[in-house]
Amino acid sequence: MLMFTGIVETLGRVVSLKKKSDEFSLTVQSSFPSLSLGESIAVEGICLTVARKKRAQEGIQFSADISEETWRKTNLREIQTGSPVNLERSLTLRSRLGGHFVQGHVDGVGEILKIESEARSKLFTFSYPPSLEPMIVPKGSISVSGVSLTIVCAAKRSFSVSLIPYTLRHTTLGQKKVGDRVNLESDILARVAAAQLKRKKP
């Protein structure tokens, strides 16, 4: 099973987002020294496949095809040319797991409701779709635009996370503002537990 950790490796830059027949094609400039065709990369928390690539001065520029389903369920429609994006290559057998298991299968889109300063950190509050409510629990894990985070507080239709200076500097979340929309993926273990409990209900 393909997995990520939610630990962003580097920031990329959107070169283009074009419509191609019934699909969209996203091209990203990365600083990766090498990539393989068919390789999976999480872009803003979305698992995409490297369909085309070429070497550029800064690293590897790659393109991925985006299905209509991915277009509907993510915030890609709001990404513009030049936008920074979080990038993470998939886990290997030798990888260290520093975050939590992330599949790159976005559950839905949330919105930044509030950003509050806390000493050197910042407390972000996000909305979330109703379908995620069983998986939003205090101290639980969640992927926000591909970043593995721990839920601090959970409320009906919103949750908060605390972002340390390192995360603010090295991910796109540090450049976000109130009203911006982000990709959300619930923790796979919470998802399985919620599904099992739902089946047991009379």
Describe this structure in words.
The structure is a single chain. This protein is mainly beta and 202 residues long. It has two domains: 10-89, Elongation Factor Tu (Ef-tu), domain 3, CATH 2.40.30; 108-200, Elongation Factor Tu (Ef-tu), domain 3. 12% of the residues lie in helices and 44% in strands. The chain contains three helices and 13 strands, in the order E-E-E-E-E-E-H-E-E-E-E-E-E-H-E-H. It has helices at residues 68-73, 165-170, 188-200, and strands at 10-20, 23-29, 40-43, 46-49, 52-56, 59-66, 84-89, 108-118, 121-127, 141-144, 147-155, 158-163, 181-186. It has a seven-stranded antiparallel beta sheet with strand order 4-3-7-1-2-6-5. Strands 8-9-12-11-10-13 form a six-stranded antiparallel β-barrel.
**Low-pLDDT residue spans:** none
Could you give the order of strands across the largest sheet? 4-3-7-1-2-6-5
Q: Output mean pLDDT.
A: 91
Total helical elements: 3
What proportion strand? Answer: 35-45%
Work out the radius of gyration. 17 Å
- CATH class label of the largest domain: Mainly Beta
